[in-house]
């Protein structure tokens, strides 16, 4: 479903109040949306242009927009932590996710990264996701269906990537698991030469374990670790300055390039 044209039944929308606070809702026909003590009939939203202003029964104005991924991800129904938009932005460019790519990811959790990967690979590409916990796999299926739409190029495998990883000729692998070093050898086997392997890890000891395993393996080059500190700004009248609060820590990104051959041990 292309995110353009008038708003359609079944879509997710964001309502923005006067202070730009965001409210995620769905356009389910026959329903009313409750918001800040007022109501808006879904029928009054269906067919409106993206970006229209609508008033609730309390006469409060709201701007209605289709959610961007950055707006949607923090609001996704979830039982596990999602990767934040600021880190997903970095992952897409540093793992060099391109239209047509064959990408593997694990684990899936609520499916935030999955949606971004599906978008970036486009209809010519494919995403294969491994999730060990069946209930999380179901949550991801529900979230993708509700907030992304049909994804014929998405394969969700319920299993442990450490034991079950079995694709061939993969362009990119993105790991969001606590112990990625158990995947290093298999990742090398399934990645094509020149492919990229990326891990998202919250703590320094995990980075150390991950980098050590890549070096010890000998089949990876260009190992890099990075983090992103994103600071939003308050811009109101003459008060133009950084916001007082920011998310200080999420996770680190460590990536490597699969080489054509494994370096012999000295
Ligand atoms: N990247 C996701 C969040 C993943 S949370 C997002 O952006 O929304 C981490 C997930 O990894 C959990 O759902 C957990 O069940 C799963 N997981 C942990 N170890 C795994 C393994 N060995 N194989 C597959 N999935 C695993």
Strands, helices and their partners?
Blueprint: E1 12-16, E2 22-26, E3 32-35, E4 38-41, H1 42-45, E5 52-55, E6 61-65, H2 69-72, H3 85-94, E7 102-106, H4 112-121, E8 126-131, H5 134-147, E9 154-158, H6 161-164, E10 170-175, H7 184-190, E11 191-201, H8 204-217, E12 220-226, E13 233-236, E14 239-242, E15 252-258
Parallel strand pairs: 7-8, 7-10, 8-9, 10-11
Antiparallel strand pairs: 1-2, 1-6, 3-4, 5-6, 11-15, 12-15, 13-14
The site of S-adenosyl-L-homocysteine has 22 residues, from helix 4, strand 8 and helix 6.
How would you describe the overall organization of this protein?
With 266 residues, the protein is α/β, with parallel strands linked by helices. The radius of gyration is 21 Å and the shape is elongated. The longest helix has 14 residues, at 134-147. A hairpin with a 2-residue loop joins strand 13 (233-236) and strand 14. It is built from eight helices and 15 strands. It has two domains: 12-67, Roll (Vcp-like ATPase, Chain A, domain 2); 71-258, Vaccinia Virus protein VP39 (Rossmann fold). The protein has helices spanning 42-45, 69-72, 85-94, 112-121, 134-147, 161-164, 184-190, 204-217; strands spanning 12-16, 22-26, 32-35, 38-41, 52-55, 61-65, 102-106, 126-131, 154-158, 170-175, 191-201, 220-226, 233-236, 239-242, 252-258. Bound molecules: S-adenosyl-L-homocysteine.
Structure characteristics:
binds S-adenosyl-L-homocysteine; Vcp-like ATPase, Chain A, domain 2; 4-stranded antiparallel sheet; 2 domains
